[in-house]
């Protein structure tokens, strides 16, 4: 006979509804219109909406897009979305956590008021290898994050890598009062679009990140000094001249184009054993 195990009881299930974070519903008609109008959506476009809530964006998007895939984690929201979507055969409501769902294989755009707490995870998914078919996005982000993603000086290697492949543009600040309930901080609309010509090839993403991590170890250092660890003195003279990087210019002040030119020069002229490793 099996011994009775005091730990072998069924785990009690929480009775209350799970408390999903980031449920700040957009209620301001002008901001809704502005967000949707941030990217060009026409009847042949598939739009993925992340965190559809009660559908305040979903159905206005459906008026323009050929196909809408709306993801929502909250079961109650999903039930009401499915009822509303009965009148829209081109809208698919999917329940789940965006982080675990497969992205569309056909070219798609994203329009979303995302939960701020998982901003990096969402961007990692869209802009990384999983997002091969991702084209462009209009996103509401927390204002501070929006500023970090779009500012000129980039100190985060991953952000820098994304910006080699995508254009980031801050469109407008969205006051916290445009949401119910309001979040603790203001938000902003950011447009992201795949570059027609990436500044460095997609397949070099990991190498570029390793290069950026190495260079950004001391952002206030002169870039020429940091580059001495990679290029020989003769190569360095030539590469500074070719990229227009001043001897005194700090790593933090390099433009995106200079980052790309320095990295490509390293691939072209430096022996691989001298490349920074991830
Ligand atoms: C900021 S609200 C936006 C709701 C709606 N789109 C709007 O603008 O009114 C974010 C939504 O994302 C949902 N959500 C939170 N975490 C999620 C996740 N991991 N995957 C999918 N949806 C999520 C929340 O339940 C919430 O409805």
TrEMBL record:
Keyword Nucleotide-binding listed: no
Binding-site list for S-adenosyl-L-methionine: 24, 26, 51, 72, 97, 113
Alphabetical list of InterPro entries matching this protein: KsgA/Erm, rRNA_Ade_diMease-like_C, rRNA_Ade_Mease_Trfase_CS, rRNA_Ade_methylase_Trfase_N, SAM-dependent_MTases_sf
Domain Ribosomal RNA adenine methylase transferase N-terminal: 31-196
CDD domains, A to Z: AdoMet_MTases
Domain of life: Bacteria
One GO BP annotation of this record: methylation
SUPFAM superfamilies reported for this sequence: S-adenosyl-L-methionine-dependent methyltransferases
Pfam assignment, any one: RrnaAD
Keyword Cell wall biogenesis/degradation: no
GO molecular function, one term: methyltransferase activity
UniProt keyword terms in alphabetical order: Methyltransferase, RNA-binding, S-adenosyl-L-methionine, Transferase
Residue spans of biased composition, Polar residues class: 8-22
Region (Disordered): 1-23
Similarity-based family: Belongs to the class I-like SAM-binding methyltransferase superfamily. rRNA adenine N(6)-methyltransferase family.
The name this protein goes by in its record: rRNA adenine N-6-methyltransferase
Source organism of the structure: Paenibacillus chungangensis
Gene name for this UniProt entry: erm
